[in-house]
Amino acid sequence: MFAFIIRRIIQAVVVMLVISFIGFTIKSQVGDPIRGLMGVSVKEVEREALRDKLGLNDPFLIQYKNFLKDAVRGDFGTSYFFKKPATEVILDKAPATLELVIASAVLIIILSIPLGTYCAIRPKSILSRCIMGLSIVGVSIPVFLTAIMLIFLFSVNMNILPSYGRGDTVEIFGGLWSTGFLTWDGIKHLILPVISLSSIMLPLFIRLIRAEMMEVLQTEYIKFAWAKGLSRKKIWFKHAFKNTLLPVITVGGVQLGIMIAYTILTETVFQWQGMGFMFLEAVERSDTALLVAYLMFVGVLFVVVNTLVDIIYGIINPKVRISGTK
Fold first, then answer.
1. Which end of the chain is more exposed for a tag (fewer CB within 10 A), N or C?
2. What is the torsion angle, in degrees rounded to the nearest 10, for the CA atoms of residue 10, residue 15, residue 16 and residue 17?
3. What gap in Å lies between CA 27 and CA 82, rounded to an integer?
4. How confident is the model at residue 171 (pLDDT cuts 50, 70, 90)?
5. Which band of pLDDT confidence, cut at 50, 70 and 90, is reported for residue 296?
6. Alpha helices per DSSP H over 151-272
7. Average pLDDT of the residues in 284-299
8. Superfamily grouping for domain 91-288
């Protein structure tokens, strides 16, 4: 296991280097940050002076080298718009996005496991067919369209849930984290964004669990368990469901990272002041320091999640852990 963890750390470092290089390469294509800072009426001489001061006229490799030195210390530059370190801006916006993703992931887990398992055990029942039919609809409808429909239904027509913002939040951990989980107003503001964000992933997980469990139920060892006279619940949940989790965990880890990308659309519709909403504002303002910091932060989340998934996968299936150490 130790050799496996070391190998995963090395892979993570390589992935982060690739992400940093790509992010630093494309930032020059976003626009001219000097124009956003100084406007269009400022003289070109003053523009060039500011470019020299910010190091924007240095050769690409020199800029990238300086960027890596600062990135190791957690310094991704200063946001041109917010006038403060980009890392600080990211950390201010991260709680909103992470809480949205966590709440959506919990909702997906709570609903997909029982629904997917039921559809595998009772594939021909009317309820299973309804669930699978609705899952097709859920996959087909874009996230932003789901969000708009929910706002129209629950906020405009019924007026029972708020349509934008985070609501009341509480500072915890000495002011390092602002959470809406601890206030009723914050929870009400979470409901519609969470349903919207989970709407695209929930049908996928239901169908994945159903397909994997139906495949497992046809294996020889399950047939042998039936022949031994074991109870249905023991066969379904102890033998079949445990082996169904292996591919689900692998796909789930990747999808959890992808869900962070979907928050851009969800946060935009609901005016949710998280990293996704901040990212679009940074693109409009050509705030390149903030763009690169966002890409690096999301890259770290991807790497951490995938590493944890691999470790959990090895715990559930010891054969994977053993084969990975050879």
1. C
2. 90
3. 18
4. confident
5. confident
6. 184-198, 201-216, 220-227, 232-233, 241-270
7. 80
8. MetI-like (1.10.3720.10)
- Tokens representing 282 are 């940074």
List the structure tokens of 313: 């996968």
292-305 as b/e, with b when 16 or more CB fall inside 10 Å? Answer: bbbbbbbbebbbeb
Calpha distance 270→80 (Å, rounded): 25
What digits encode the pLDDT tens for the residues 106-135? 898 899 888 988 888 888 889 888 988 888
Q: What is the spatial distance between Cα 160 and Cα 265, in angstroms, rounded to a whole number?
A: 23
Which whole-number Å values give the CA distances from 26 to 23, 71, 286, in the listed order? Answer: 5, 17, 12
* Model pLDDT for residues 57-86, shown as the tens digit of each residue: 777 777 778 778 877 777 777 787 788 888
Enumerate the domain spans of the chain: 91-288
d(CA 14, CA 12): 5
Helix ranges restricted to H, the chain: 2-26, 33-38, 44-54, 60-72, 86-121, 126-140, 143-150, 184-198, 201-216, 220-227, 232-233, 241-270, 275-284, 288-316, 318-324
- Per the DSSP assignment, residues forming a β-bridge with 179 are 170
User: Can you read off the two tokens belonging to residue 56?
Assistant: 């924007």
Is residue 196 within 8 A of residue 266, CB to CB? The reply is yes
CA distance 56 to 34: 10
pTM, two decimal places: 0.76
Judge whether residue 320 has pLDDT over 70: no
Asked if residue 326 lies in contact with residue 38, where contact means CB atoms within 8 angstroms, the answer is no
Q: Which two tokens stand for residue 298?
A: 């999301």
Alpha-carbon dihedral 257, 258, 259, 260, rounded to 10 degrees: 70
CB atoms inside a 10 Å sphere around CB 211 = 15
